[in-house]
Design a protein that fits this description.
This protein is α+β, with helices and mostly antiparallel strands. The protein is 44% helix and 13% strand. The protein has 15 helices and 7 strands. The protein has a 5-stranded mixed β-sheet, with helices on both faces. A two-stranded antiparallel sheet has the order 1-2. The longest helix has 20 residues.
């Protein structure tokens, strides 16, 4: 979301570049693997998350690696060109040449007309990476990859005083950098239904309906999230039970939220069963939508979904890696301690709140529908 509209995909490009070696460490992976560690990273619309696990005896190796690539990432023309080609190839393979790969490249700009969420993390257009200069990439690094724009979390069987010493030793001398000032364009309220129909060389039709929803810090966020679980979380959920199992209108069907920090999307996504038209499939989804708008969800059904959500949140924190990621995420949006309030927020949600939310966001004028049709053979 912090990228320039004519230079998108840079955050994802950096996810690759950050493993290309730094000033004092030509290969990031080699010393980490020798210390018994492993690592990975991912980029979404709001953050890039670099994470590693390592035996506690070799903890300082992690500080050495991370501080060096934050302080002085190696920018050789050769390494830049190698990673640029890797990203270009990924763009082609995963988004342009893979069945259903361009769905998000179509759906996001259909739903968003102002906010940077209109492009995917891979970028808006492949030319943005193809034409990127070393200077542009260095400017991006200097702006975002510094302590003022970073959150570091340590989780595990660690000694706090020792960890603090390592923080001072390896990070204290890195210039803080300027704090990133965000003034992102706000998405205007959608006032009419949007529809896009495309044909592709795919085995089956696919239908996607997106609705604008609140941001991550809005008190309605958890309500919307729980609503998605009521509709589509497991084989006993409404959409699976009614439209996949009983009526056999869909081969698969899902409802979920994007979980973005700024105003996100509530999405219905499915593939109609053989012989079912797009119009039938769309109507069936809207019929289920109308039910949650008109009828209160039963207390037993709500309690079951709450229990399932609570258990998944608790079990999700069993691993140190997941715990570290969650703490970093909450520190990013508000403060790390707020993670302890999340279950309580879901527990307080009433059937009336769910109905009100459904009535608020599930309207035709707030919908963006993508008909992704399999190309018919010419007779």
């Amino acid at each position: 979301r912090d990228e320039e509209p004519n230079r998108t995909g840079f955050a994802h490009l950096f996810e690759h570049l950050m493993f290309g070696g730094s000033a004092n460490i030509p290969s990031y992976d080699t010393p980490l693997e020798k210390a018994g560690g492993e690592n990975n990273a991912f980029t979404n619309s709001d953050i890039t998350n670099y994470y590693l696990t390592i035996p506690k005896e070799n903890l300082e190796t992690a500080f050495w690696l991370e501080s060096d690539r934050m302080l002085n990432l190696a920018f050789t023309d050769k390494s830049f060109e190698v990673q640029r080609q890797v990203v270009i190839e990924e763009f082609k393979q995963s988004y342009l040449n893979q069945p259903y790969g361009d769905v998000w490249l179509l759906l996001k700009p259909l739903a968003y007309k102002n906010h940077p969420y209109q492009w995917n993390t891979i970028g808006k257009d492949i030319s943005h990476i193809e034409e990127a200069s070393v200077k542009e990439v260095k400017d991006f690094y200097q702006r975002f990859y510094n302590p003022n724009n970073a959150i570091m979390v340590l989780a595990g069987n660690i000694n706090v005083e020792e960890a603090k010493e390592y923080c001072w030793k390896w990070f204290a001398n890195i210039p803080a950098g300027e704090k990133v000032q965000r003034n992102l364009p706000k998405e205007k309220v959608q006032t009419e239904a949007r529809v896009l129909k495309v044909e592709r060389e795919v085995p089956n039709d696919a239908l996607h309906i997106a609705f604008h929803m609140c941001n991550r810090l809005d008190e309605g966020y958890q309500v919307t999230d729980l609503l998605s679980d009521i509709l589509s979380n497991g084989p006993s959920s409404r959409l699976f039970r009614k439209l996949v199992k009983e009526k056999a209108l869909f081969a698969d069907l899902d409802a979920y939220i994007t979980g973005d920090i700024d105003e996100g999307l509530f999405i219905f996504s499915g593939k109609p069963a053989e012989g079912v038209s797009m119009e039938q499939a769309e109507q069936a989804i809207w019929e289920e939508i109308e039910k949650v708008k008109e009828e209160l969800i039963g207390e037993e059904e709500l309690e079951k979904v709450k229990n399932k959500l609570e258990s998944s949140m608790i079990f999700g924190e069993v691993s140190f890696l997941n715990k570290a990621m969650s703490l970093a995420y909450y520190e990013n949006i508000t403060c790390a301690e707020d993670i302890n309030e999340e279950v309580k927020k879901y527990r307080k949600i009433s059937t009336q709140q769910l109905q009100a939310m459904a009535q608020d966001i599930f309207t035709k004028e707030n919908s963006s529908t993508l008909f992704y049709q399999a190309r018919k053979e010419q007779s």
